[in-house]
Design brief:
Layout lengths: L3 H12 L1 H7 L4 H4 L4 E2 L13 E15 L8 H4 L10 H4 L6 H8 L11 E3 L6 E4 L9 E14 L15 E9 L5 E9 L13 E7 L13 E15 L2 E15 L27 E7 L2 E4 L2 E4 L17 E5 L3 E3 L14
């Protein structure tokens, strides 16, 4: 049940839907920015100024996303005559190197080339991606639990020379795949992704907006209010064994974007009121392990070694989960104030 103050805030936000829509866009360490231990806060003490956001879900409903095509909205992607959110403007900001190569091979991180879009019969509008993505409406209900504490200590990214970030996370997650195999992620540390249009606040951001027209993260998900988000490096564990190392992981506790029919909203449909969502609550927590491995020379496009076999005989090359029954604590629009004694 969503508290009355949260529901009133979201209802008011929905009354402002048109205004919000009009706003629009407002070593491993060497490879992806500054390394910081997940547990030690990068050398800062807990008493330092900053924001802590806690989100958790005990064993409950999780959506496991399968590969599939993603609907495209005009607000984000424009029209065939005037395409938006293309790859070219971001590549123009980069020199040749591993990041540029990664984006050419995995453009959905920042945009979508026009040739990767399907159109209506008259060619006047985009309809969906021409290739499968991790952001489809094709999902399977599995189970899992997550306990995330986001520690936001630096609200800005450092250009060029990343250095150490004081941002950190405590992140415990367990879940199953559609066949019942048991997974966990071992998060090593946070990172500042070296993608020029992204604003990741040193690896952890709070009380902001990402995705869609923001320029931060994939535009294939809608622009959404973000209680907290982090980017990091993890190992993937299946049935107690480490099956993949040094994969990028991105988690975010955000305003709910899954509609009551289980589809993901377009940006033009956001924000959703709780009674418009699948779970009937204002927020959910998403976790994605994209097909990216980070090494001393930088990031490379490389499938995640999951245990789940798709109908085509290949194993699923990414993990995308949505925890639909989470509780948000110590954050804007928090469900309730978390007792100090229980931390």
């Amino acid at each position: 049940m969503v508290p009355n103050d949260v529901r009133e805030s979201i209802d008011a936000a929905c009354d402002r839907r048109r205004v919000l829509q009009a706003i629009g866009a407002s070593g491993i360490a060497a490879g992806l920015g500054g390394r910081v231990a997940a547990q030690n806060g990068g050398g800062r003490s807990e008493s330092d100024a900053g924001v802590d956001v806690i989100a958790r879900q005990r064993e409950g409903v999780v959506h496991w996303s399968l590969p599939g095509k993603r609907r495209l909205g005009q607000m984000v992607f424009g029209t065939p005559e005037h395409p938006q959110a293309t790859l070219a403007p971001v590549l123009d900001l980069l020199d040749d190197g591993p990041v540029a190569t990664l984006l050419e091979e995995l453009p959905i991180l920042v945009g979508l080339p026009p040739e990767a879009r399907e159109t209506t019969g008259d060619g006047e509008a985009y309809t969906q991606t021409a290739v499968p993505t991790p952001f489809s409406d094709n999902v399977v209900r599995v189970s899992g639990e997550v306990d995330a504490r986001y520690r936001d200590r630096r609200p800005y990214d450092l250009p060029a020379s990343y250095g150490e970030s004081p941002d950190s996370v405590d992140f415990d997650i367990r879940f199953t795949d559609p066949n019942g195999a048991r997974y966990s992620l071992d998060v090593k540390h946070t990172i500042q992704p070296p993608i020029p249009t992204w604003e990741t606040g040193g690896g952890v951001v709070t009380d902001t907006w990402i995705h869609g027209t923001t320029g931060t993260e994939s535009p294939l998900l809608p622009r959404t209010y973000t209680y907290a988000a982090f980017w990091g490096i993890c190992d993937v564990v299946v049935e107690g064994d480490v099956v993949d190392e040094n994969k990028v992981v991105h988690a975010m506790t955000v305003a709910n974007m899954r509609k009551s029919d289980e589809t993901i909203a377009l940006e033009s449909e956001m924000p959703l009121a709780p009674d418009e969502t699948f779970s009937g609550q204002a927020h959910h927590t998403q976790v994605i392990v994209p097909p990216i491995t980070v090494g001393a020379d930088g990031p490379v496009h490389e499938a995640v070694n999951t245990a789940y076999q798709l109908p085509n005989g290949h194993t699923q090359p990414f993990i995308h989960l949505t925890f639909e029954e989470d509780t948000v604590v110590n954050a804007p629009f928090a469900d309730w104030s978390f007792p100090e004694s229980a931390e």
